[in-house]
Amino acid sequence: MPTPQVYLDNASTTPTDPRVLKAMLPYFSEEYGNPESLHTKGKNALIAIDNARETIAEILNCRPSEIIFCGTATEANNLAILGTARATTQNIHVITSSIEHSAVRNPFEQLEKEGFSVTHVSSDKEGFINPQDIKKAITPQTTLVSIMYANNEIGTIEPIKEIGKICQHHKIIFHTDACQAAAMDPLDVNELNLSLLTLNGSKIHGPKGIGILYVKQGIKIEPIIFGGSHEKGLRAGTHNVPGIVGFAEALKILREEKDKGNAHLILLRDKLIEGILKTIPDTYLNGPSPSSNKRLPANASITFKEINGQELLLQMDEAGIYVSSGAACSAGTEKPSATLCSIGLPQNSLHGTIRFSFGRQNTENDVAYVLKTLPEIVKKLRQRT
Length: 385
What we know:
Elements (H helix, E strand, L loop, with lengths): L5 E2 L10 H7 L1 H4 L10 H21 L6 E4 L2 H15 L5 E5 L4 H12 L3 E5 L9 H7 L4 E5 L13 H10 L3 E5 L18 E5 L10 E5 L25 H16 L1 H22 L3 E4 L12 E6 L4 H10 L2 E2 L15 H5 L10 E5 L6 H21 L1
Parallel strand pairs: 1-11, 3-4, 3-5, 5-6, 6-7
Antiparallel strand pairs: 2-8, 7-8, 9-10, 10-12
Helix pairs in contact: 1-8, 3-8, 4-5, 6-7, 9-12, 10-12
């Protein structure tokens, strides 16, 4: 009997929904024109982009002209952070948090090299950023605040709306990386008091290689990629038409099915968390309580004491269970997770943390297989130490 294949690394990337793939296919082999071209094939591609832009704008409650298509969410984050900071003429202070994804953290490090003053606001032990800490960090020179909507490692959903109100009151640009939170409410950029918002396709059962940046009308921003005048001069390069179409379709499906989808994810997540904590001693959950409604429906970050996370990951891989140790974008580095350090995880536990993240394709049978297989793997690894 073949080994089951259980993919629980959906916070890294999700399988593309067949409905999304179906929407994309014509733009590979039939309507493959360059949308900048004046002929019919080009016009048809442009129409597809315009329709996708309108779909996304309707979901975010913004103008279609405020949606900028990028190659990835990382690119969109760089454009948001570097583009707005560099466009300032006077204010050179920016604020972010201690738990950001590297796609936000590293652009802020670049700004420091360019002479900007950067304040990193710390989280509490569950990964929450206190809006009052943001308020205290603001100075007359502050031009930008960037705080993620939901943490990619431990699933904490941040008080973005409250932080947005503070930024709005002080007339400061506010950006959020919402890649992990596309199925959360609200996603209305006006209700969230946002100036900039990042999303991508690979986290929502859409295609890889496509990200979007919402840029509120009137925000000054400079390009970081130079070439043609695409995307209002903010993102040079030929449009990824299949990716754009696929992203819009994926976001539409996600929002239409979010209530049912989130309920399914919560059911699987809670079964897994309860099962692991009951059957495997010396384990604990990182981030908010699942009952608080302030944790992502798909996320379970669990620390296994006296275990090397990389060894555990490899043993699980051999058993057909695919997960991440911390964030996938940090995999392969000896540097401990900034998020896990920020929440005060003991030094000897930093490398024993596994992130399980569910997608719409996962089932209760997947959870049952993990709960059947994982205790024995952990037991054997602990016996070696």
